[in-house]
């Protein structure tokens, strides 16, 4: 290639395009301030007592759900005539006053860094999506401590200026991205007396360059997941990272930076990889300078990879500003499928064999019987004869195949790639599934099961309005301990509910990601809290016991949600003293004044830094 042609190739890689985001700077224009997702999308109870999903963003939009209505009444004993109406907003007197000095505001103005002390803006960026967060916003008191100021850096250099400035003025920084965390990661430490600023990276969302020769792309870290994917799709590429919170998450959680900061995983990780497999370079601004690799080669053997400290740092060491990712051409086709198994054990054994043969499709997920029934309830009247439990198929499963509806479970599959390879891949999975008693259930159920992942998150808001608290938690575990872990956690939760006289509850699980040596298991737990004084504390108590059971059964603290503040107890308990000391030394070196004092992973009092 001559010099002229080489320059042409280089030029075509330099995009530097500002991305028009689906989420505006004023987030509450589109998103709920006290719940999950879009304002126009929610489960609601109609005047006729029927649960309905509103909006047209999802396949079940503007649809009455009679089977789901019946399901929640039977399983959770919900009285849909008694609605616990959430508050519309907090008064200005209920929101903690800002502690930022006028001198600091003046400096920001002179530096032309966008900022605000608006009460609503500060409140929105001081919480995530934990049960405590959302219950407090709807029915409890305002958080005792919220950020004092919100700043919107426009680029990497702005972040450098902000970090330098807070060190001079002894101010605390809490990075904020998509606001989808479920670990308490962006909540403000209650006992922090210094001024706290929330650094909202959402305006840092440019596509900086695209290298088609090497299949690499560089985005600013504030880009929302669906914006990133849309920009790549327009150019014929995909990143393939699709976490459950993909619509609203970012590289800084769940924006692109958040994916990196929490070591995120996506539903398509089998082909595209987890975030640590996708990241080539991540630029992080610390109090001691910028951490970056300065190389785009695929691999290096150049001593310890200290840049790995960026992954999973959860905003405690610096702010991620730019990320270089691997990309792939868009697949030729996408095919869904599903398989019914007689029981959960058969399904797990099938998934283990698929992993052993390393023939996982893009996504392979297994729902237990409770989740299967729940998913089937989320269907409309119009689709009853197209679903798995219509009369004919139900008869076939029970009388011909000998399945019991009280034990069957479903595996959903997604294949991507060239059509010929997808067909052979699908046949391979079907053959393995049949050897474990599985029966194919078709594309429609597979697609529906995959897409419901994005809708399920909306259910908790409805549940809270009818005296039900619910949350999910996850872990990773080796294959030989998967079934016993799932069984132990379910029994632990059931026993504790019985002790507390909680009669109506739900505990279910699904396997969501698979590896050579193990898998990720997601648990969903909720209960009707009628008769209890403090449902959130009760839930936290039961989940804590469940997490202890997870750890005792061979599971991890978290597979992809991170540690945050909610899981620091287990982090400090289960990590070796040497590892904790190594992290502490890194914290002391990179952040000597403890300005990144969000309290995640390990809480460091200023006196100990």
From TrEMBL:
Limits of the FAD-binding PCMH-type domain: 143-330
Keyword Magnesium part of the UniProt annotation: no
Pfam families recorded: FAD-oxidase_C, FAD_binding_4
Binding site for substrate: 460
Binding site for FAD: 244-255, 262-265, 314-320
InterPro entries: Alkyl-DHAP_Synthase, FAD-bd_oxidored_4_C, FAD-bd_PCMH, FAD-bd_PCMH-like_sf, FAD-bd_PCMH_sub1, FAD-bd_PCMH_sub2, FAD-linked_Oxase-like_C, Oxid_FAD_bind_N
Stretches that traverse the bilayer: none
Main location: other
Superkingdom of origin organism: Eukaryota
Gene Ontology BP terms: ether lipid biosynthetic process
Site (Important for enzyme activity): 365
Family: Belongs to the FAD-binding oxidoreductase/transferase type 4 family.
Pathway entry: Glycerolipid metabolism; ether lipid biosynthesis
UniProt name for this protein: Alkylglycerone-phosphate synthase
GO CC annotations on file: peroxisome
Keywords, ordered alphabetically: FAD, Flavoprotein, Lipid biosynthesis, Lipid metabolism, Peroxisome, Transferase
Function, in words: Catalyzes the exchange of an acyl for a long-chain alkyl group and the formation of the ether bond in the biosynthesis of ether phospholipids.
MF terms (GO), sorted A to Z: alkylglycerone-phosphate synthase activity; FAD binding
UniProt EC number: 2.5.1.26
């Amino acid at each position: 290639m001559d010099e002229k042609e080489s320059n042409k190739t280089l030029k075509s890689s330099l995009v530097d395009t500002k991305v028009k985001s689906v989420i505006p700077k004023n987030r509450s224009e589109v998103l709920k301030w006290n719940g999950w997702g879009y304002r126009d999308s929610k489960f609601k109870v109609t005047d006729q007592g029927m649960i309905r999903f509103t909006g047209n963003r999802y396949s079940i939009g503007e649809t009455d759900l009679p089977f789901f209505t019946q399901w929640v009444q039977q399983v959770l004993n919900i009285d849909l005539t008694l609605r616990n109406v959430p508050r519309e907003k907090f008064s200005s007197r209920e929101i903690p006053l800002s502690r930022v000095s006028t001198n600091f505001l003046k400096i920001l103005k002179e530096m032309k860094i966008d900022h605000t002390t608006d009460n609503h803006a500060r409140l929105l960026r001081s919480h995530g999506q934990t049960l405590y967060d959302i219950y407090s916003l709807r029915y409890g008191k305002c958080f005792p401590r919220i950020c004092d100021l919100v700043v919107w850096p426009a680029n990497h250099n702005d972040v450098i200026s902000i970090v330098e400035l807070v060190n001079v003025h002894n101010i605390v920084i809490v990075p904020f991205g998509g606001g989808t965390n479920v670990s308490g990661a962006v909540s403000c430490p209650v006992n922090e007396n210094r001024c706290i600023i929330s650094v909202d990276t959402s305006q840092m969302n440019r596509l900086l360059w695209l290298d088609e020769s090497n299949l690499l792309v560089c985005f600013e870290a504030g880009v929302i997941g669906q914006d990133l994917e849309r920009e790549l799709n327009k150019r014929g590429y995909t990143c393939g990272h699709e976490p459950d919170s993909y619509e609203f998450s970012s590289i800084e959680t769940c924006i692109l930076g958040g994916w990196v900061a929490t070591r995120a995983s996506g539903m398509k990780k089998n082909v595209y990889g987890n975030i640590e497999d996708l990241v080539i370079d991540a630029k992080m601004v610390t109090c001691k300078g910028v951490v970056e690799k300065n190389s785009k080669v695929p691999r290096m053997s150049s001593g310890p990879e200290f840049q790995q400290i960026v992954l999973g740092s959860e905003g405690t060491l610096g702010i991620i500003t730019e990320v270089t990712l691997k990309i792939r051409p868009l697949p030729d086709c996408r095919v869904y499928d599903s398989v019914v198994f007689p029981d959960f054990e058969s399904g797990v054994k099938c998934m283990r064999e698929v992993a052993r043969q390393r023939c996982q499709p893009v996504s392979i997920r297994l729902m237990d019987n409770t989740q299967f029934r729940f998913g089937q309830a989320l269907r409309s009247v119009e689709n009853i004869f197209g679903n798995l439990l219509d009369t004919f198929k139900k008869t076939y499963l029970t009388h011909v195949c000998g399945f019991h509806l009280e034990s069957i479970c479903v595996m959903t599959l997604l294949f991507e790639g060239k059509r010929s390879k997808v067909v052979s891949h699908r046949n391979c999975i079907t053959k393995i599934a049949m050897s474990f008693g599985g029966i194919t259930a078709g594309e429609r159920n597979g697609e529906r099961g995959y897409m419901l992942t994005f809708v399920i998150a909306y259910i908790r808001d409805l549940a809270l309005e009818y005296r039900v608290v619910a949350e999910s938690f996850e872990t990773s575990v080796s294959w030989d301990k998967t079934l016993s872990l799932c069984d132990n956690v379910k029994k632990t939760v059931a026993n504790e509910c019985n002790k507390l006289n909680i009669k109506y509850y739900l505990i279910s699980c699904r396997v969501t990601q698979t590896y050579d040596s193990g898998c990720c298991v997601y648990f969903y737990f909720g209960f009707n809290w009628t008769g209890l004084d403090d449902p959130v504390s009760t839930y936290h108590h039961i989940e804590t016991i469940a997490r202890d059971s997870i750890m005792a059964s061979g599971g991890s603290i978290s597979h992809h949600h991170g540690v945050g503040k909610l899981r620091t107890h287990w982090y400090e308990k289960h990590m070796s003293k040497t590892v904790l000391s190594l992290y502490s030394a890194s914290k002391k070196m990179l952040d000597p004044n403890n300005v990144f004092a969000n309290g995640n992973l390990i809480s460091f009092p200023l006196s100990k830094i």
